[in-house]
Amino acid sequence: MTGCGTQDDAAGGSGAQSAGSGPVLGIRPSGDETITYDKAKIKNEDLFKVFDHIDENIDQHVVNLQKWIQQPSISNTGEGLQESAEMVKGFFDEFGCQKTQIYDPGENQWGSQSNPVVYAKCDEGAEKTLIVYWQGDTMPVTQPDLWKAPPFEARIVEQEPFKKVLIGRGAQNSKGPEMTFMNAIRSIKAVTGKLPVNLIFVVEHDEERMDIGLNQFMKDHGDLFEGAEATWGPGASEGCVFVELTTSGDSWGRGPTYSDIHGSNKRSVDSVAWRHMTMLSKLVSEDGNKVLIPGFYENIVPPTAEEMRILRKQAEGRDLEIAAKNLGVARFISEDPLTQLKMARMGTSMNLDGIWGGNMFAGGSGAIMPNKIVSKHNFRYVPNMKGPDIVKKLRAYLDQLGYEDVEINVIGDVPWAKKNTNNDLSKSNAYTASIWGLGSKPYSPDDSILLGGGGGYWPAYLFSGNQSSVNTPISSVRAGTGGNSHAANEWYVIEGAGEQLGMASAEKVIATALYTYAGLNGEIPEEFANPEGLDTAE
Predict the structure, then answer these.
(1) Where is the composition biased (Low complexity) (predicted)?
(2) Band of the pLDDT at 441, cuts 50, 70, 90?
(3) Within this chain, do residues 407 and 436 fall inside the same structural domain, yes or no?
């Protein structure tokens, strides 16, 4: 694929495949879906041609995703990151973007080395320019024996109610949705020769490390985003500050000071491990659900009336037993659907993500007294809380308790962000959702104004004028789905079922959204205006 890149469906350096000459996976574009688009609301004939092209090439589109899944890109270990960055750059080179580059942001503000950031600018001669945010990294595979297919094979399997889903690390978080976007714009360009909007891509490989490299990149290269009117991203984001707590015999002045020692010495030697566990027990309530750090809950802004309206609507008919089963948990903290949703979407927490030291070998025995214990913790926070303030309060509380020797290492901080929804991109995405029968009128998806959406952070703050010069509206509309992010058997739907759309339909939704945002799919009805909006957060 060379030149201006008007062909479609090249994947990571392979040549384009025309319909009928590519791989044969037997993907049914509409699967067992029971909803589809309202043809009367498609005002641009090119969109019908794009939809046909997607259907004809859906097997190759799935292969495109499989090839990306098969390339590991694990930010916490460094495995495959440079290769992934080169592969992603190849997507944009083949697409015909005028500028593509891999950046090394260098050492970041938290004192660690950043992972690569891929940048691409695709000038299509359109009136509007859209920033597209991606993450190229994934979490490690921590429980390989629990996977029903190898995590980097990208196998397609049946999983009720879906006849075909793709199993693989990164399938849902976030290579599946991102390749769906890439397939959509490739199809548009294959049919029409150009996109309805200009695109600026930024792809980080540090999302699972608190976006530490992207933070540095956006501070240093804000000029690369000049002229962009909006950002394609999940919308609002909760805050998250991630820390490591370390207790060592050397700092404490008791217990093993240089290395681990034989466990029989516990009879006469103080334990670093028990000290650390006792310290942790004082940071949260006995059930782990309330943070005991003095002042932790200060400054919290309660949900607005509109946010509570959305939560109440989403809680209607919600079966917590089914929701818990789908998540892979025994039950939720609360048995009330509204309370559970409020906690999940807009709550705060201190989590114990991991702890290590001493004998870390599965099975067997081996008496060891560790000289050092390290635990990882993420604090989820909401407006108007601040990550550095939480760390300051944690330090003061540890000192008050007599744990002055316990070290706090801040891995990174992602401030919360909450954007105004009264803008062209939010309105066009809401209308696109209506065209496809997704969500409820007049705003869809409703989660766009709830912190965390489904319960997670992303670096929205860097596109909201906080710590960078880029300040744009943020919105997206996504129809594809998956699950088990950060867990075994991560999956992404290939063939949809019922009201859940599969990959081909999800690509069509993106194409519809881009044409609608560009003003090439008729007028957006007035009912999708949001005159009140939501206040932009800092």
Answers:
(1) 7-22
(2) very low
(3) no
